[in-house]
Amino acid sequence: MITANVHYAKTNLSKLLVKVAEGEQVIITNRGKPVAELKKPKKSIEKKKKPLFGMFKDEIAIGPDFEWTDKEIEELFYGPIEPKL
């Protein structure tokens, strides 16, 4: 187990993280009292990457009263809409 004060931990964080990766435990102290503990996680912290397409599947719901098209927006894309006779 390694004990380091806040100043040492701030200036040597990368060195301490190497020790943690090797399995060491680091206790960070402030004015002689332990305030934090660095240790290797039990499981990997890596996030699973979601696929780009379909990443929001089942996370977004569209209400039944949703209007798919708006007349004004439709006219911006397709020009003036002539009424059907």
Account of the protein in words:
The protein is of the alpha+beta class and 85 residues long. A three-stranded mixed beta sheet has the order 1-2-3.
Secondary-structure map:
Layout: E1 2-5, H1 6-11, H2 13-21, E2 26-30, E3 33-38, H3 71-78
Parallel strand pairs: 1-2
Antiparallel strand pairs: 2-3
Short structural description:
The chain is of the alpha+beta class and about 80 residues long.
* Terminal-residue CA separation: 85 Å
Structural class: alpha+beta
Count of alpha/pi helices: 3
Average of the residue pLDDT scores: 84
Q: What is the 3D form? A: rod-shaped
Give the helices and strands as they follow along the chain.
Answer: EHHEEH
Strand order of the largest sheet: 1-2-3
- The proportion of residues forming helix, as a percent range, comes to 25-40%
Q: Please identify the oligomeric state.
A: single chain
Largest beta-sheet details: 3 strands, mixed
How much of the residues is beta strand, in percent? Answer: 15-25%
Count all strands and give the number: 3
* Integer-rounded radius of gyration: 29 Å
The residue ranges in which pLDDT falls below 50 over 5 or more consecutive positions are none
List keywords for this structure.
85 residues; 3-stranded mixed beta sheet; single chain; alpha+beta; 18% strand
